Amino acid sequence: MRSFVFVFVGVLSLVSCQQEKKPIKDNGSTTDTIHKPKYDLKTVKITDENVVDFLSWYGSFNPEKEVIFHTKFGDIEVELFEETPLHRANMIYLVKKNYYHTTYFHRVVKGFVVQGGNSDDLKTRKARRAIGEYTIPAEFREDFKHDFAMLCSARSWEDNPEKRSSPFEFYFVHNRTGEHHLNGEHTVYGKITKGISVLDSIANQPTDRGDYPLFNILIEASLKSKDNVQ
């Protein structure tokens, strides 16, 4: 009888241990499936509804913050701010998706801004559709101002009371004294660390009446680090 009781108690203990086991969670995993990514990066479409959740998740395992924009005039190296995590993660995501390879510096106003991230190429429209239709919540900070050489987000000024950012287009401030009237209007999320002379070269290019350069200034973008995490 004692032998039976011992075995029975042992079985109950085993069952109890099995019931208390919880799914293993790793970075980006759901709570009900072991090692299953929260988002499939091959098929995910970003929307206004999932943008915060997706970029927070993506940024948690893609910590890079140094980007290089390659142009025919040379390279512009940029540091992204950790204090604007959604904008940082979005830029890293687009760079790793090779989005910028189809885009140009398409708006140039010397002494004001140099803007990039768009083109009239059908490949750019296709890339945007594949990534998703969304905007990014503003991440304003009083200590990040529109000083010279700062990286800022473009945005729509119509029907946009929350001042949400375009995920694709950005600009550098080219006014040596800054454009501080734009503080609190566009998110500032990085700064040029190397390549000011390249920015000046782009700003000196001739443009049409719409501020579009007469000669295309193609962008290619890469990470300064060699980390291949996607």
Question: How is the biggest beta sheet arranged?
Answer: 8 strands, antiparallel
- What's the number of helices? 5
User: Radius of gyration, Cα only, in angstroms?
Assistant: 24 Å
Q: Roughly how many Å apart are the termini?
A: 60 Å
Structural class, by secondary structure, is: alpha+beta
Strand content: 15-25%
- The best one-word shape is globular
Summarize model confidence as the mean pLDDT.
87
Low-confidence stretches: 1-34
* Fraction in helix: 25-40%
Elements, N to C (H/E): HHEEHEEHEEEHE
Largest sheet strand order: 3-4-6-5-7-2-1-8
Break the fold down into its secondary structure elements and pairings.
Layout: H1 2-20, H2 51-60, E1 66-71, E2 74-80, H3 85-96, E3 104-109, E4 113-118, H4 122-131, E5 150-153, E6 170-173, E7 188-194, H5 196-203, E8 220-223
Antiparallel strand pairs: 1-2, 1-8, 2-7, 3-4, 4-6, 5-6, 5-7
What keyword list fits this structure?
single chain; 230 residues; alpha+beta; eight-stranded antiparallel sheet; disordered N terminus
How would you characterize this protein structure?
- With 230 residues, the chain is of the alpha+beta class.
- The protein is 26% helix and 19% strand.
- It has 5 helices and 8 strands, in the order ααββαββαβββαβ.
- It has helices at 2-20, 51-60, 85-96, 122-131, 196-203, and strands at 66-71, 74-80, 104-109, 113-118, 150-153, 170-173, 188-194, 220-223.
- The protein has an 8-stranded antiparallel beta sheet with strand order 3-4-6-5-7-2-1-8, with helices on one face.
- β1 (66-71) and β2 form a beta hairpin.
- α2 (51-60) packs across α3.
- The radius of gyration is 24 Å and the shape is globular.
- The model is unreliable at 1-34 (pLDDT under 50).
